[in-house]
Structures are given as structure tokens and as C-alpha cells.
Amino acid sequence: METNLCVAGFGGQGVMTMGKFLAEATCDSTDKNVTFFPSYGAEQRGGTANCFVVISDDFIGAPLMDTMDDLIVMNGPSLDKFLNQLKSGGTLFVNSSIVRENVGRDDISLVKVRATEMALEMGNVKVLNIIMLGVYIGYTGVVAPEIVWHTIEKKLASKASLLPLNKQAFERGLEIGKSQKQ
Length: 182
Fold this sequence. Notes:
- The protein is α/β, with parallel strands linked by helices.
- It has helices at about 15-30, 75-80, 115-120, 130-140, 145-155, 165-180; strands spanning about 1-10, 35-40, 50-55, 70-75, 85-95, 110-115.
- It has one domain: 3-Layer(aba) Sandwich (Pyruvate-ferredoxin Oxidoreductase, domain 3).
- Helices cover about 40% and strands about 25% of the residues.
- The chain has a six-stranded mixed sheet, sandwiched between helices.
- The protein is globular.
């Protein structure tokens, strides 16, 4: 089994953090192979940012950036840029708080999440990436949720005050992902 994922959005939306958490959780706690490939625009905060994560039972030669199984988009320009690279039968995860465009494809699964609105309702827009990561894990099951949460917990250990909100965001995302899968 091999899963090719692209996460794309504006700098400051936690795109790279989301990809890193997934890649590190997979690498540290499973016997799967993983590749993380980041790409930044000219500016970090507010510019474009995307990353590719490949998770495989076999060796990974290089990330395949021309076709993806899954795509997480956090903004409209990312949808425009990467939608055609999502393979038929793939899954598109959309931050529907920002991306309001019609996807225009009926050969893919679509998971819409009001991630920005939910993060604001929770009191901190910075958890929108943790919500989306939870949705992705809940929907795909590509890595066990406990493994991903353990990595988040480890990475945020120096900022212990952030853990309860991030845990809440991750669990809420998991619930959404699992319910969308049914």
C-alpha cells in the first residue's frame, strides 16, 4: 500500500506542521516508509505553501508530485493549482470556510470541513490545521490516531498550555472524518 498526499494552503495556516506531524508520526511509530517534501512560496506567512507526504509499505524512490491519492486544500489558489493532480477515485479534503468554489469533479470523494470557523469557535485559529489533520486521519485511517496524537503531544511538550485545545481540535477532526467516511 502507498498513499500520496499533498497538503496546500497559505503560509501561516499550518500546512507544513500538518505534513510534518503526519510524516513524523508514521516514521517514529510504524514500520512504514515515509517521505516529507516541503515547498514554500516567496513569502512564508501569507504566501503559498504545500508539502507532499508519501506513506508506503515499500521503499519510496521519490515523492510522486504529479498524481495524488489525497489532497488537503486550505485555500482557493491551492484548489486551482492541485485539483487536476488528484487521481480519479482520490479524496479531496477542503477547508470550506475559505474554499467556496465548486470542485467540478464527480470522480473523487469530497470532504468539506469548516476548519477555520471551527478553530475560531474554539478560540484559536491556529488549530485549524490540527482539525484538518484529525479529519484526514479519521477518514483515511492511514495511521492510527493515537500515534498521530502522541507526535503532536511530543512536539508541543514545551508549550503544555496548548495541549488541551489541540487535543480538542484533533478529536473533533477525527469525529468529522469518521462520520464523513460512513
